[in-house]
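User: Teach me something about this protein's shape.
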Amino acid sequence: MIRKIFILWGVCFGLLPLLAQPKVLDVRLLSANEKLVPGAENKIAVEIVVHTPWHINGNQPLSEYLIPTEVFMDSLAEISFGAFDYPEADEKMFDFSEEPMRVYEETVVVYGSVIVPKTFSGTEMVLKGAVYYQACNDQSCLPPKSQPFELAISIAKNNEKNVRINTAIFGSK
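Assistant: First, the predicted structure itself:
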């Protein structure tokens, strides 16, 4: 009987950290094309889906004490990343703040680029990074957190046809 109580206690308290950390957002790294082209600027985007009732601070908050949302890419030898272009955040008032805040809600897309050198000899690579953010609801804020993401993507060979994908994010051109 005591053994069952300890097992039940362990299961309950083992799940508490999972229950205490609500799922605030989902993140995907997307490419505009099926394959990355060596020697070209390849468009990428980080899609951030913020779950209701949460919002995250914009990339350029109005107060210096607020944590900006930022995208970071892991370094890869010979691979370079262009600067990320963050959308303008909405200015909103909340009960816990006397001043408006710049926030992202629902779906946010941050655009960037990756350049693979012409001399790259591999057939695939894995791009990895993270979104650093602070989430709040209408009453309070959670501690800042990083949400990792990754994308395994093929590298195009010389003159290989490259199919446009994710047109809802990048358009068809």
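Now, about its shape. Helices lie at 2-20, 167-170. The first helix runs from residue 2 to 20. If you'd like, I can walk through any region in more detail.
User: That's plenty for now, thanks!
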